């Protein structure tokens, strides 16, 4: 009892230091958002100020200056065009925070950090529902709390920390349903929200449900209804894009064309890495089709152009399909950084991923827990699926840190049980 109390105090103080330190770093850098992180702020602000999801007539520099001067509330922005380049969950949350609390980036940081605390609570509930020992549960929650992946992305406005929370929430609801056989609707709904938070995980909920069905942990009707409800949630956004963008296509995100092109070109088989995949040049595939180089392509046209060019590249280079897929899959499951990533958090991340990979292999080989085996297999299958279509990488994999930690905890528990049985 004294050991457990001492552990809680020690972990609590350590987490408090990590939590405050990362919060201070995030506050110090809050006006330096750019790239993908800036896109999310821009879209959230567009919803809050214009009521529409898209772009408005102000540059990044202008908006940053307005944030610094606390002038966002008094400024008027004119909406210019709708978009579907980014998934909607994080921008919608940003808009809600701005509308309710005010136009200050500090509120976004506070929200993300509070959401992480809630994620810690749900992760603890997962472990308790699975009857993990209290001391192991405390250690597990502590490791979840100080996850290197969360620390890296907690400091910027990317969607990865938000996705980490939704994966954790979905896992809790799923585990609770599988164990208690009640309340299947919430986990199905959150599965859809998870995909709309980060489309990289589009195959994960469906893979988990299907494998649980194969293991007879879910009835077929539950697998079917969960899949239908999840797809219905996703289809709300697809329907919005179909109507608002005046497109005859079913679009999840218009960035999908560029993402496919980054994952399919001549350089991938030799140069793709798990640290810089998103920096690849999507324009490399354009030489495989004839297109109007003088035309100014809109968002949808550009998406279609990249998809058409990617398919043309694949058809023109069938001998590169297997080497490209092999390179991407090896990279996707490689826990080590394929280009140098200095820093203690980057080191912590690959160490964490290495132990997670070992745990997954061990659980597949020795575990008889159908739920845990289903989660391992589903993560592998969903990763293979999305990697073949697009690509994977350290950043995209970071939201699955909680799931990987769960594998490590169960691998340790299985090892302990086997050792006890062998001794007995």
UniProtKB/TrEMBL annotation:
Pfam families: PMT_2 (PF13231). GO terms for cellular component: plasma membrane. GO terms for biological process: lipopolysaccharide biosynthetic process. Residues 86-236 form the Glycosyltransferase RgtA/B/C/D-like domain. Keywords: Cell membrane, Glycosyltransferase, Membrane, Transferase, Transmembrane, Transmembrane helix. One of its GO terms (molecular function) is pentosyltransferase activity. It is found in: Cell membrane. The keyword Cytoplasm does not apply. It is a multi-pass membrane protein. Its main location: membrane. The chain crosses the membrane at residues 7-27, 89-111, 132-150, 156-175, 187-212, 218-239, 350-367, 374-394. InterPro entries: LipidA_mod_glycosyltrf_83 (IPR050297), RgtA/B/C-like (IPR038731). Its EC number is 2.4.-.-. It comes from the Bacteria. This is Glycosyltransferase family 39 protein. It comes from Salinimicrobium profundisediminis.
